[in-house]
Specification:
The structure holds two protein chains of two kinds.
Chain A lengths: L1 H13 L1 H37 L5 E4 L9 H11 L24 H9 L4 E16 L2 E10 L1 H8 L5 E4 L1 H6 L3 E5 H7 L6 E6 L4 E10 L4 H4 L2 E5 H7 L9 E6 L5 H12 L2 E4 H4 L1 H39 L1 H9 L4 H35 L20 H27 L3 H6 L2
Chain B lengths: L26 E12 L5 E12 L3 E6 L5 H8 L7 E6 L2 E2 L5 H11 E4 L11 H12 L4 H14 L15 H13 L5 E5 L7 H18 L2 E5 L3 H5 L3 E6 L2 E2 L2
Parallel strand pairs in B: 3-8, 3-9, 6-7, 7-8
Antiparallel strand pairs in B: 1-2, 1-4, 4-5, 9-10
The chains are: A alpha+beta, B alpha/beta.
């Protein structure tokens, strides 16, 4: 094999220019492949992160619903069982119970979840509808009472805070973080006081300790964050009053099954991230498919380049093939020589492609990209995942192997007698 | 001294052992009733029931008119052409029906070739050209093959050119390198297809002397196709062919 490789390399050196052109073809396609996929996936991660970072994998809550059975149905069932004609009733008199949207027995549920090995984190939430009183106008708002340290750790809360220190929110009572749109409308900044009115009429003054920007404008016009204790006080509810429990799992894919399980087990409503955000996954998938398709097409084009050059080389080297065969090299030796030749081109092109791909990723990564919707992003996002490098180099070797196989097989079948006698 | 006995198992007049599986020391090459036809565009029988033997150390030439089938016969004997009828045995081993890899191995081990054209690879140095078949056979290490290649080149007074590219040599020099390449694996038989055909008379004489020397010193057989009557006259035995048959 060593001998065959050295013959292949010598033949390659003799056709250095063409070989370089072929390798550059492979290099170019690998460079583009790596850059494209890195950029596309960086973008995917960013866009998905806009929502998914801030979204729990499973959210437990209690939804107000109309009673599924009306009292008259119970009476009717007894009536028909006694032999009366069946009939239909039109009575819809029982409205949803005047029940608080709280989760019952929330602390026990949280305790159970904490002990579940599949669960990464459990964070309670208390969501309150409020009005912000600005002069004579009341602005609609929603205050999310959060466990600030948990939110920073598992939901990247700090990344979305454009002004202020998130720890102020954790330690300070009666402090609030306003959405950027809301703060702009109220013309308030850090340290200002805002007046909040709850749905039941309670009024409280809260100090603004930060400005929050999620990148989704409508969301930022309504949403605010406060310490969960602050919101409990605002609503005059006890310390165990929670409306939501947000669960992050170790494996995102378990979410739908977990949601069903938890819903049945605790008698609450549960929604999983896949159901809540199906469109994001679809978008990512489509972008992925497009970038893979473009990358593979580039590689196939490079493969044709190698095929052409090898074919030409074999045509020019018929004499060499004939004499190698005459002096004891078998057909499979000849095939191996040309396959090795192709693989060397693929390997050199592939590895330099990875190198240039990495450089190109760095270039893309340093192009400024500033948008109001994405406060924490200053340059184009790039995913440096080594997965794409491995895929790229595997595809490069596969393509060059296939592109080399056909010419190499042709070379292995060259009849030396025909060549030698033809002279 | 061609033999007409079919093989195996019948004995032939020329070889005491008679069988194809003859022990070493008798016939290097045994050919029995070899026929070949070309079918394009019409079927032409170019070889008709050719039988012959070549003994160890024998220097044999094949002559005949152009188109009499002498080159065709040589390529069948060389194992490169496998499309024929009849039997060919090299060093006692029948070659018919062997796999391509096995035939390549036989060529590598037992046969050396010298063609009318030198067929040196211009990408390799003179020395490397000579070494290639030796490296392929793999009987000796690289250093030993290189040493032997150098010896062969020295024998033909080509050692000063060892590191040159094959392109930088004259026609006669190239042919000497090609002979050195044919000898690198100490083949049992050297086959030549008009090895002096492209050379002037002086270089042709050098090549002939080299052949004579090989045959005398190393007990290697030579089978050379030539149309040069002077060349043929000086060999041990002349096989004359006419119209696909051995006639003398």
């Amino acid at each position: 094999m060593n001998l065959l490789l050295s013959i292949a390399l010598t033949l390659l050196r003799a056709k250095l220019k063409q070989s370089i052109v072929a390798a550059v073809g492979v290099m170019f396609s690998i460079t583009m492949f790596v850059t494209l996929l890195g950029f596309m996936n960086g973008l995917n991660t960013l866009l998905d992160g806009l929502v998914l970072n801030r979204t729990p994998h499973v959210r437990l809550y209690n939804e107000l619903q109309a009673s599924p059975t009306q009292p008259i149905e119970h009476a009717w069932a007894q009536h028909t069982a006694a032999g009366a004609d069946s009939a239909h009733h039109f009575i819809r008199s029982v409205k949803p119970k005047d029940e608080l949207p709280r989760l019952r027995n929330a602390e026990a549920v949280m305790q159970a979840l904490e002990n579940d090995p599949r669960v990464l984190s459990v964070s309670p939430r208390l969501v309150a509808q409020v009005f912000f009183n600005v002069g004579t106008v009341d602005l609609n708002g929603q205050v999310n009472g959060i466990d600030v340290m948990d939110e920073i750790r598992y939901y990247q809360f700090a990344d979305y805070l454009v002004q202020g220190d998130p720890h102020d929110l954790a330690t300070g009572n009666n402090t609030i973080v306003l959405g950027k749109g809301l703060a702009d409308m109220m013309e308030t900044g850090i340290g200002d006081m805002v007046q909040v009115t709850t749905a039941t009429g309670e009024r409280t003054m809260l100090r603004v300790s930060g400005i929050f920007q999620s990148g989704i404008a409508d969301y930022d016009k309504v949403q605010c964050y406060a310490n969960i204790k602050t919101v409990q006080k605002l609503l005059t509810r006890p310390g165990s009053y929670y409306t939501d429990i947000n669960v992050k799992l170790k494996d995102l894919l378990l979410a739908p099954a977990m949601a069903r399980e938890l819903s049945a087990r605790f008698g609450v409503d549960a929604v999983d991230i896949q159901t809540a955000n199906a469109q994001f996954e679809t978008g990512s998938d489509v972008r992925n498919i497009i970038s893979y398709a473009v990358g593979v097409v580039l590689l196939i084009v490079a493969g044709f380049g190698i095929y052409n050059i090898l074919n030409m080389m074999i045509y020019e080297k018929l004499d060499a093939i004939a004499i190698l065969k005459a002096t004891g090299f078998s057909g499979s030796d000849v095939r191996r020589i040309f396959l090795l030749l192709s693989m060397v081109i693929g390997l050199v092109g592939g590895v330099s492609g990875l190198l240039f791909g990495f450089l190109m990723q760095n270039v893309v990564d340093s192009i400024p990209f500033i948008t109001a919707a994405l406060p924490t992003i200053t340059t184009f996002p790039v995913d440096y995942n080594p997965k794409y490098y491995i895929i790229a180099v595997t595809f490069a070797l596969l393509t060059t192997w296939i592109a080399g196989w056909f010419p190499a097989s042709k070379a292995s079948q060259v009849d030396p007698v025909e060549i030698i006698r033809g002279k | 001294m061609s033999s007409t006995g079919p093989i195996p198992p019948t004995t032939s007049a020329g070889s005491p052992a008679g069988k194809l599986a003859a022990p070493r020391g008798s016939n290097i090459l045994e050919v029995r009733n070899v026929s070949k036809s070309f079918h394009d565009p019409v079927t032409v029988k170019v070889l008709k029931e050719v039988s012959l033997d070549v003994r160890r150390g024998e220097f044999v030439s094949i002559t005949g008119k152009s188109g009499c089938g002498k080159s065709t016969l040589l390529y069948i004997l060389s194992t490169m052409d496998t499309d024929y009828e009849g039997q060919v045995a090299i060093d006692g081993e029948p070659t018919r029906g062997l796999s391509g890899d096995r035939l390549a191995r036989i060529r590598s081990e037992k046969i050396g070739f010298v063609f009318q054209f030198h067929y040196l690879l211009p990408e390799f140095s003179v020395l490397h050209n000579v070494m290639l078949p030796g490296l392929k056979l793999g009987k000796h290490g690289r250093a030993e093959v290189e040493h032997r290649a150098m010896e062969r080149l020295r024998q033909f007074d080509m050692h000063d050119h060892a590191l040159k590219s094959a392109n930088q040599l004259s026609g006669g020099q190239k042919q000497r390198v090609a002979i050195a390449r044919a000898l690198i694996n100490d083949p049992l038989i050297i086959m030549g297809d008009e090895p002096t055909g492209n050379l002037d008379s002086r270089n042709g004489a050098i090549v002939f002397d080299i052949f004579k020397q090989i045959s005398a010193q190393h007990e290697q057989s030579l089978l050379v196709v030539t149309h040069d009557q002077d060349f043929a006259d000086r060999t041990d035995r002349i096989i004359v062919m006419d119209d696909g048959r051995v006639v003398g």
